[in-house]
């Protein structure tokens, strides 16, 4: 144990995706510009990304997205932001180091979060990307951004990153208990709808270059070098572990991927297509949960709870039961605390 580590002050930064400042079309446009110009989200060469994002997407999408945001916005603002703030406040009550939040896109930024910690004398930060599963567009982009900010503005600060936790027992138990508590008495199927990613992202992050995005590779295999970075694998493994914990048969569950954007092939099966076909296969009463998100947001409250419900009922489905994310549930805050404390202790091991 180094003396310096013991005397330096530690802190926690919780990082989530971020939301527009308001539902005004210009604010949504500014947010989408920063988000979609991230090379780990739309991974084309800069010139092609700029042509697609600024030349096409930003011409029409901001107005449409602003309307969607209006349906989930509350007096407290964006659900994603105020829920992350609630997690921060609850965590702050049970840990003895400062806790701040930062968003990958828009405000409060990662830089703002680090600055707030530094202003409190912190020089060693545990940064928690609030994504259970690894992807270029989740954990990787958060770490890249934080390192860029650290090197430029806070070279004296050390950051320890919490890795994806989709396979941690404490998280699986917490998610399983949370879902179990919210399940309706009668349901024909429980659907796990994860945010999608383009297939290309899975190929790009596979160090072994062996994943064929099929059942043998992503679903039935165990964690290995390729799966350490395979988002699709990690989503299936999350589901497998949760349903085993819940004692739910596999036949009663569905896995799907939502929120496609653009013309590329995204990982399948697609949530919207699934919702339109399952009623004809006898699923009339559906429960649905979105475990790629730890906090409710536009993609869960609007795309699933509102649009998804309409798609399902239009196709002949009857009862659609949306199961909220972990949000600021006490059992989840306990998990966040344990994961942060493990990394806080790592500083002593250097
Ligand atoms: C949970 C993990 C997420 C992954 C993986 C992800 C990938 C990804 N997203 C887009 C495009 C959009 N996503 C949008 C909203 C959004 N995405 C996530 C999370 C993941 N995205 C969240 C939590 C949210 C909601 C934010 C909020 O304010 O509530 C949007 C904006 C809304 C819209 O216009 O539909 C876009 C666009 C891509 C292209 C991508 C992977 C390449
Ligand atoms: Fe997204
Ligand atoms: Fe895979």
Automatic annotation (TrEMBL):
It comes from the Bacteria. GO terms for molecular function: ferrochelatase activity; metal ion binding. It is an enzyme of class 4 (lyase). One of its GO terms (cellular component) is cytoplasm. Its main location: cytoplasm. Its EC number is 4.98.1.1. It is found in: Cytoplasm. Keywords: Cytoplasm, Heme biosynthesis, Iron, Lyase, Metal-binding, Porphyrin biosynthesis. GO terms for biological process: heme biosynthetic process. Pathway: Porphyrin-containing compound metabolism; protoheme biosynthesis; protoheme from protoporphyrin-IX: step 1/1. The keyword Lyase applies. It catalyses: heme b + 2 H(+) = protoporphyrin IX + Fe(2+); Fe-coproporphyrin III + 2 H(+) = coproporphyrin III + Fe(2+). Coiled coil: none annotated. Fe(2+) binds at residues 195, 299. NCBIfam families: hemH. Belongs to the ferrochelatase family. HAMAP family: Ferrochelatase. Catalyzes the ferrous insertion into protoporphyrin IX. This is Ferrochelatase. It comes from Chryseobacterium angstadtii.
